[in-house]
């Protein structure tokens, strides 16, 4: 027979009621529940509302029933209770409860003493834990997947403008394709991001990978078809059906590549490295950046060498074979990443309650997605303009107006039409990417010696100075000679050191100045603004599409870089109170 005791204390009596409950187990359960803190257990501090005080007690594995035996006095005082309840009513002595309360206090003091006596990790041990990834095997599989995917993507980024530039001596087709690709990123980026939030990570990633490769293969087919028919004029190229398909495929390919990059850099690497392991996360970010730059070097160099020795159609078929080969490798490595990380990528992207409420409240149809995307864009613009480090971000955006004096589609098309060998053009792009790798090391030393803010100014001033000399060399009308042309390209290569240094330092400035709760929103908006800047310059290149207008485009690019340097230096020399509070560790503004 089991016995349950439910005790109710009254201000004027020490009576407690006992109910006998029949069950198969034989134990007495008494659970203490106090409606307030420990001070109610102390008799020196009587509770203000004693009539609301309730007590349930529990004793386990005991056959002692003598403490609940009652005397005649108790039975006389509880006659009314016996008449109302079919169970016996007993009285427990309050001094025993007070003794137990004091024992509870003593036990709590012992626990507090025990907790304060626990050993604390040293700073070296904490740094060792912070530098260890949460899922190292999964992180290495992610590196391999990014290496295979980025190699094909960077090779194609160099291949398509070079192959199109061989069709006709004009910048127009490359500028048109680049313009519509940027427009697709600006308009479709929020839509693709919203769709990815509604699907599991691994299937969504593999689906986008297949879409990207399909768009690349379609583009290869269209360019091969164009080389087979050899259009005679640019006006005939722009109205051809194959060119419309090529523009659409290029926009889809860029949009898919952007979504894949955001998924890896903003979500996957955080889960695999660990959100509470900052050193491991920083190292993982650096490795991903170097993988991307190394793939840019290898892709541009390989295709440039192939293009210098073989026909463009043969090189495009070779690129298509590499795309087909890399697709299953990327899919398998993506699956392996999730398996080696104990399925961490299968975690829900939001709590179950919020996911249910969001799915019940709105379905991801086209109207809701478009409406949410428009609201997200509006909110992002508002938050972007109100950020405390806006001048540093605007300087970063101004650098994206430089679409000519930098490795890219327009520069590749210009050098191809200028008569340079594809191997030299590939080497030029590879050296620019190598400067990006070097900048990841140089920027750290610059921050250590100059501080974050001065390091950013040094990078911008270096880039502006070198590009000024490069434009002067171009306007000297001596690029037809070999040595001035090599000097011109060398200045652009060296300017990438300043550009990428500010890219690294600027990211740290934004991480310091932007609240963590708004980092993703402001960062995504900054990418959209940068894409808008590129699209504006590509629109200008569409109008001034002849190679004779390259000097005009180069001057616009130079003015944007000089403007970025002036804007940043003015912000640095006239610090606000918010800037002083955010960068109080910087000696120049303290």
TrEMBL record:
Domain of life: Eukaryota
Keyword match Membrane: yes
Any one GO molecular-function label of the UniProt entry: iron ion transmembrane transporter activity
Gene Ontology CC annotations of this record: membrane
Membrane topology: Multi-pass membrane protein
Keywords: Ion transport, Membrane, Transmembrane, Transmembrane helix, Transport
UniProt-listed SUPFAM superfamilies: MFS general substrate transporter
InterPro entries to which the protein is assigned, alphabetical: Ferroportin-1, MFS_trans_sf
4Fe-4S listed as a keyword: no
Family of this protein: Belongs to the ferroportin (FP) (TC 2.A.100) family. SLC40A subfamily. Belongs to the major facilitator superfamily. Phosphate:H(+) symporter (TC 2.A.1.9) family.
Protein name: Solute carrier family 40 member
Source organism per UniProt: Abeliophyllum distichum
